[in-house]
Amino acid sequence: VVASSRAGGCKSRALVISPKEGSELDSAEKLKEDLKRRFDPDQEGWKVVGLRKRGSRSVVLETEASSRGQVELEDVRWAAMGVTIKELGKAQPRVVIYDVSRDLSDEEAIERIRGQNFEGISAEEFRAKCKVQFRSGRRNLGVVNLVLEVAPAFRAELVAKGRVYVGWDSCRVDDYLGLSRCYKCQGLGHIAKFCRVKEEVCAHCSQSEHK
């Protein structure tokens, strides 16, 4: 956990809480009211430094790092509330799952990953740990690469598996490093639009005799 220093030497932890798409909590005021209704700082053991608006829909919850109770990012109550929560200024780790069937929606893919690989985790808890950020890959293929934002502890568990079952496929899992990949020559650091190679290179065998 990254903590920032405040006046007087105290260290604090700032968390951004935002409503999910389609949530009824469509304003920062509604979000603050619902947060106060669901959580009691005394019972949770939080030393709240402040609860302030961030834009028109999000809020920042700041607590002392020395609190006897810490705000748990993976608490299933956040998913039940219909919000996401993350460290302010600290991006969650991302992983990529390769060659997932394009026919699956993001929601279907997430449910298959959970149901076929993490049977002991409820759907609600799994969605709190893992969500699709975007898809990548060539549009003329029947598969895509899913880039997921995941909880730090869950990232280690997912990457350690090496592969996960998604529908009819066993798909490779790895850390997402954010490098651009050219789907024409299969090189890194640029995209197909700016590629200087004349012939396409096969992603599976690295040959250019076929597509």
Task: Provide the descriptors you would attach to this structure in a database record.
Alpha-Beta Plaits, disordered N terminus, 3 domains, five-stranded antiparallel beta sheet, 211 residues, alpha+beta
What is the correct CATH architecture of the largest domain?
A: 2-Layer Sandwich
Enumerate the spans where pLDDT stays under 50 for 5 or more consecutive residues: 1-9
The average pLDDT is 83
Distance between the termini: 47 Å
* Number of E-state strands: 10
CATH class of the largest domain: Alpha Beta
Round the Cα radius of gyration to an integer and report it: 21 Å
**What percent of residues adopt helix (DSSP H or I)?**
10-25%
String of helices and strands: EEHHEEHEEHHEEHEE
Secondary-structure-derived class? alpha+beta
Name the beta content range.
25-35%
Number of domains: 3
Shape: elongated
Question: What's the short version?
Answer:
By secondary structure, this protein is α+β, with helices and mostly antiparallel strands. The chain folds into three domains: 12-87, Alpha-Beta Plaits (2-Layer Sandwich); 94-175, Alpha-Beta Plaits, CATH 3.30.70; 182-210, no CATH class.
